[in-house]
Amino acid sequence: MQQRHESDSHSPNGEHRLLSRRSNLLDQSDMSADVLREMYTAGAQRWPEVELAFDSFARHCTRFGGAAFPCEEQAHGADLYLCCACFSGVARAAVVIQREGAAVAHAAVSRVDRDPEFVQDVVQELWDKLLVGPEAKVGNYAARGPLLGWLRIAATRIALDRMRARKAAALQQNELTSELPAEGLSPEIRLIKARYGKDFRVAFKLAVAALSGRQRNVLHMYLKGRCNIDQIGKAYDVHRATVARWLEQARSDIYETVRRELRVRHGEVTDSEFRSLARVLRSNLESGFLSDAPAPD
């Protein structure tokens, strides 16, 4: 069989079949070896610190088979080389992408929200999604435009997703503030609540908004999700005692913020009156806290 195959390859029909197979391989990726070599060389020259084998680059380009690399896309061959190297696990390539794209990413996110913490979080999420793991999105870059433009779009999308998540979190805050009980209160607390109720709600809402994202998430898991501190600890990969401290700190922060805001609006609020109002908070924010918290040292 092997001998017949070799003889066929030297016959006119055999040569025709081999040429057809090679032509089909080129047709599948719609590019010639010369084009691939030019794009590869452009990348190797532009990013000399990033080493990548030509075969790896050629295989990567077959991911985009069926769509030709016209002149405009060939112009971004160096960017494709860099992304291919990163997707192939070349650590230096990820460093270069972050270095080259940092300014563009920060500018794109800042147009959505200039808050420094927001910008930092979104940019970190961008790099995590694009550059980390076997499903890193950098492998989807197909040189249909400059890499920096592609990064700008990706950063903007993540920032907008974060904004939508922030609005959802705000709805959760409204759920918390809407749960202040009106029934089962003593006449004294009803009187105090009638006097300070509106400002109390405003102060409470401000207090919840002032919590960190983690504090709000933990409170929501505890109060709305009915998770105990062991379950929350597993979700955050921390000890149950740490979760108990987080919950206690969140409670304390809310109480202190409400107390401060009420005293700004009603300087005559006494400690006794605030303790009565605090019972309203406690019924919502301390339900189960003390029973789940570990015993003091």
Furnish the topology, listing elements before pairings.
Layout lengths: L1 H9 L1 H18 L3 H14 L7 H8 L9 H4 L2 H11 L3 H22 L3 H16 L15 H31 L9 H24 L2 H11 L5 H8 L3 H26 L5 H15 L3 H4 L5
Helix pairs in contact: 1-2, 3-6, 6-7, 7-8, 7-9, 8-9, 9-10, 10-13, 10-14, 11-13, 12-13
Mean pLDDT: 76
Content-based structural category? mainly alpha
Question: Element order, helices and strands?
Answer: HHHHHHHHHHHHHHH
Number of strands: 0
Distance between the first and last residues' Cα = 82 Å
In short:
The chain is mainly alpha-helical and 297 residues long. The chain has 15 helices and no strands. The chain has two domains: 31-164, no CATH class; 179-292, no CATH class.
Word description of this protein:
Mean pLDDT is 76; it is low at 1-12, 18-30, 176-185 and 284-297. α1 (2-10) crosses α2 (12-29). Helix content is 74%, strand content 0%. The chain is mainly α and 297 residues long. The radius of gyration is 31 Å and the shape is elongated. The protein folds into two domains: 31-164, no CATH class; 179-292, no CATH class. It is built from 15 helices and no strands.
Based on the model shown, name its key terms.
297 residues; mainly alpha; 15 helices; 0% strand; elongated; disordered C terminus
